[in-house]
Amino acid sequence: MGKRAENSAAIKERLYVAAAEIVAQVGFAGASVARITDKAGIAQGTFYNYFETREAIFEELVPIFGKKLRGHIRSRVGDTFDFYERERIAFDAFFEFLHGNRFFARVLNEAEIFTPAPHHDYFESILKGYRAELARASREGQIRKLSASEVEVISLMLMSARTYFALHYSKQIHESRKVSSTVTNTYMDVVRRALSP
């Protein structure tokens, strides 16, 4: 990547982060271009070199940060093979990401109303990953045999758990990067009891 392209990518990244932080503070309705560019330290005119409208950047926030979240979790899990260990690492990595991107939970909640298509696609991508991981672990005997309908329901249960833990323990996550070991251990104990062969 050339210097010019690097600078362009850096500016766009600043705009994404600024937009997400402003949305977290005042919601999509109050997140004006002026507020976003002021937060990013960029002239308002520069904004339109990257996005045609205010709504255009909003449409990209969930896909951009959703991709970053999945990348963060993948980097933590690495080539760990065991299903339960992968789930434990991914569970903690999810909260690490929220700690470093404190705006994401609010952006995601707001997106359900203001940008429903990207919001829906985000959850479908997470669901797809869980389906694949549960199906793999079931095939390889790491967990009990699951039907397709069981894979679907359990995927949604595991996704829901992370979401509601994040809401309930938000202060703890912001202060210490993760939930307590008691929470993680209890969560994993329930997962093992539910899925062990």
From TrEMBL:
DNA-binding interval(s): 32-51
Listed GO MF terms: DNA binding
UniProt keywords, alphabetically: DNA-binding
Keyword DNA-binding set for record: yes
Ranges for domain HTH tetR-type: 9-69
Protein name, UniProt field: Transcriptional regulator, TetR family
Annotated organism of origin: Rhodopseudomonas pseudopalustris
